[in-house]
Each structure stands twice: as structure tokens, then as C-alpha cells.
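Table S2 (continued). Query chain:
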Amino acid sequence: CNMAIEAGGKNGIFPVDDVTRAYVEGRVDRPWTAFEADPDAEYERVIDIDLGKVDCTVAWPHLPENAHSAREGRDIAIDQIVIGSCTNGQLPDMAAAAAILKGHHLAPNVRGIIIPATQEVYRACMHEGYTDIFLDAGCIVSTPTCGPCLGGHMGVLYAGERAISTTNRNFVGRMGHVDSQVYLASPHTAAASALAGFITEYTEDSQ
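Corresponding output:
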């Protein structure tokens, strides 16, 4: 919800639902309160988005809002993919990437970095066999960390390098050198692009 800033908002709040309640159960040891809008709350504007009609989208450098269709990236070669971190690093994200990478290898000259969001996800990846799939495909698998997302360590980009990443922002110098480029995408798109060696949309044929 902090990405609401990139959409022009001051902050973003998601209503608590049954999925959230189930997740919190057993993870906190003190009482908590779910805050919700008043039933008679009035809003200046309501925007409904049918996500089923949204094209496979990639954020071009250097802003998350610089959205393009993944199909426009066929001429953009990549040097690295990053799948995971705090954004898109949950178990379903790992499963999606593993399903695409299984039985395949990264394109030549493409580095692959997988970062489960939590130790729980990291352990589940090992139990589900996803870690072996990632390693067999030529990726490295890290313990949970911000790592390359903010140019901290591991996968920091050199001048002129391009990465397609499932992390959350792609500002100038975000993942390394100021002359590097970061493209933001889903785990599906990042994994498919890793196999192709360039930015491409995920399709069933990607497997």
C-alpha cells in the first residue's frame, strides 16, 4: 500500500479481510484492532479497475508509473533478473517463477537472483522443491534481504546494465550505478524474460 504514493496519493490503506485475519492469527501475541471506514463514508471519487483487462505491464526506467506493455520490450536485452524481496516474494510468487523456470536454464549472460520474502517462505521453497528448480535454472537463492533492491549488496548493477525486477521501485541508481536501468515486472514476466534474454510477456508457451 505504500506504492499509493506513486499513484499520486498521500497514503494507501487496504481494508482488513478474512485472508488478513487468518495471516495474523498465531503471528501476534497482543490484541490488535482492525480500523475500517465508516459505513456512511463519502468519497470524492471511486475508481473500479478490472484487473483481468489490464495488459501484461512493465514499468520502464526510471519511475514505477512509467508503464508499458511487456510486448514493447522485445528489443530490450537484460543482464539480470531479481524475483522476490519484500515485494513479490511470497510463496505464490515463488511457485509462479518455479513453474516457468522448471526444466529450463537462464539465457546466456543473464544472472538470476531469487529472494524469498521471509524465512518461512525460504523454508517452504526448499520443502516444495522450488529451490532446486531455481538452482538448476542457473539462479542463486538468497536468504531474505533487501539486497540489490536498494543497491545494498548482491546483484548491484554496473554502468549500462539492465535488470528486470519484481522489487518495488526503479529510480535512478536504485540498484546500483546511475547509468544502469531497472524495469519492474511480475514474477511471471521476470521469469519468462530470464529465459528469453530480453523483456517479454508471460504466456503458456513460456513454459
